[in-house]
Amino acid sequence: MSDNHVEQVIIIGSGPAGYTAALYAARADLSPLLFTGNEIGGQVAITYEVENYPGFPDGLTGPELVEKFQKQAEKFGARIQYDWVNEVDFSQHPFVVRTANGGEHRAESVIVSTGATHRKLDVPGEKEYTGFGVSYCGTCDGFFFRGKEVIVVGGGDSALEEGIFLTKFAAKVTVVHRREELRASKILQDRAFANPKIEYKWNTVVERINAAGGDGNGTPPKVVSATLRNLKTGEVEDFRTDGVFIFVGHTPNSQLFQGQLAIDEAGYVQTDRRYHASVPGVFAAGEIQDPVFRQVITSAGQGAAAAMQVEKFLGELKAHGYHHAAVEHGLAV
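User: That's the sequence. What structure does it adopt?
Assistant: Structure tokens below.
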């Protein structure tokens, strides 16, 4: 290592959880160091418009919200470094964090907020029209489809939960599923089958998402149809739709922590109710440990809570040492 400096807290990830943790840690005079990762701002940064974050009644774009998160954290002394962590060592304390640009840092505590990534269909039009009719969050974007017709891709709990939610706004929701039966829980299936606004296309996949506009004349693109293929008959059709909502799962960005932290079968970092991970002094917040809510506001709240717990941990650490701090927080060492 280049010197003996030890950070009080390092935050890994720059989504709502990470930036809010940085804000709270900075206001606690902990001088947090945050590594942005290679997806600055997380999933919200690619959201075209955010209307359900409190304090912004007129809404704002995802990138605008991320910029405000960062500015507020920096205002109170958070240090933001545009680099991504590619190795951690939580087997020793202080912890070791290494970055892609060759940096090596030590820290008394770490907050993991690397989020999760929506699984993609990887079809033409999906990436290009995200935010312009392609969405991965009905709760976030359903309002924009009032009176319109939309497709929901998937057959699990998330697909049906979001599909049912979308019927509050959309005139019709068509569930497109590659199998003959759904994977969702029976209670959700019963609710969905009883909903007159929901229709189904079985044994069907999306091959392309099509849009109009966006040809450089100032008009943004707008999804107008999806090319569907029936896996049994081979029949292909252009199915008219105003939006495509994709719910084929999430992949937590936890590969970095394999062998370092307790991770469940789905890949989420395991925490207790106060956001302690399995190693004393390591905390996790946001979608890296939250498979349920996955909202900007809940991730921000979890980031705030994690930072508050870090402050308590560091207080015990300073007063009594690492082992005492771990015991005080109910963790074995």
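The chain has a mean pLDDT of 93.
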